[in-house]
User: Fold these one by one.
Assistant:
Number 1:
Amino acid sequence: MLIGSSLKMYFGRARTLEWTRAVAAICAEHPAVRRGLVEPFVIPTFPSIPDVVTVLQETGAADAGMLVGAQDLHWEDAGAFTGEVSAPELAEHGVALAEIGHAERRRMFGETDATVARKVAAALRHGIAPVLCIGEEAAGDHRAAAAACIAQLDASVALAVREGLTGRLVVAYEPVWAIGAPEPAGEEHIRAVAGALRAHAAAGPFDAQVIYGGSAGPGLLPRIADSVDGMFLGRFAHDPAAFGAILDEALALEEDR
């Protein structure tokens, strides 16, 4: 099970490292992580990536399997792209995951299915697993939501499929209407859409997982665990204790089986 958080631009460097040390210490000792039941991850801002990698190594969290991600990447390997960061450079820093296509990137920075597809292919070419964010715009019927999300998924991996790329793909189902909301989407809705995405992704060429994001926090995992491969946490994980509580939930689920 894959469980982690994108810190977006909430924290500066000092707060990022404080949070990471606390969460890494929890993960390094937690039975769910040490037994391989949970693969934890953190996605900080670009400038904090090297320091976060060091913290995970120093605390033993890296040895326990905790991963570091990036919040974006460029689709080219090198060139005159001021302000951008390439997949090869991220790989040099030990980045294993890259968040791609988040609704905020689409809304604020004009990203499209075409640019997302190029970024997905770039990540896979360099051994970085895309954390591909997809989700329907408006609340509604789960069947329509699943159809919209599957279409978005197919468009986002189309270039990688044409190039014959394979590798790990993390599909982060985040209903756009649930991002930043007081509560996540309803559990039946999540289970229906995530289940449809899992079935569809399983037929593709990638080693695919589906995780849920969109106001995800403690208490949700036990209600949706049969339909997802993990959780993509946001602001509800800003308290390291909340991250630990979700690891506790993952452990309890395994022990109840």
Note: The domain at 1-71+216-257 is CATH 3.20.20.70 (TIM Barrel).
Number 2:
Amino acid sequence: MELNFNLIYQTSFENDSFLELQQYCIDLISKNPDKIFKSLNFSSIPEKLLISLIQDANLQMSEIQVWDHVLKWGFAQSPELPSDPTNFSKEDFNVLKNNLK
């Protein structure tokens, strides 16, 4: 389960019959958020999963750390954005804004 945690977590949201598995994963992430946030495929998790992660009141991570990961996720949704935000155009900011909406 540890090796394929992201897959199991994503799968738990695909069917209402997996609610117990979903809750197990959420509890595990609350105690050890790095399981998702620092995983290699974090940037590919669906928006719904990201929202459920950041809305968890028991998440043991500072708001700054959460925001940093959310921004990384947002950048990954539009790889065409410049890597340095100081070079962003107004349109680039709008793209990122739409990703994070």
Note: The helical segments are 5-12, 19-31, 34-37, 47-54, 63-76, 90-100.
Number 3:
Amino acid sequence: MESRFNLMTNEVGAKVGKRMYNVSLAIRESSLPKALQELVELRASQINGCGWCVDVHTKEAAAAGETAVRIHLVAAWRESAVFTEAERAALALTEEGTRLADAHHGVSDETWAQVRKHYDDDQIAALVSLIAMINAANRLGVITRMQGGSYEPGMFADLSS
């Protein structure tokens, strides 16, 4: 399977990509831990089947100091002993926020209560925004069939200029 379309070589697609990247910078600058951000983005990308995004967030998680064990176990976090209660709350919110169309209840009150227990308001704003942004990025990647495997950590650092 090959990519259908390269958004970054299209004028409109590149403008949208740059703006999405700049929104992501505000999230990156929050107090939400970088490694947790990558795990959240990885989990949403796994659910949505975005090969490009799984590649990006696997490699960025490793670059942020995550261990191979934790990266590999994100897909089975509920059945793993390597995640903290706070990380579990963030991953549950990620799954429920990503699977909105699959669940009649959306984000459960139980999950929201766990998120409120572990994160302050700024971190919650960052977490909710992060989940929304990665789901948008996943859709761009899946629709255009962006292929995983070629990403190098930090390769888009110059987009913010």
Note: The chain has a mean pLDDT of 93.
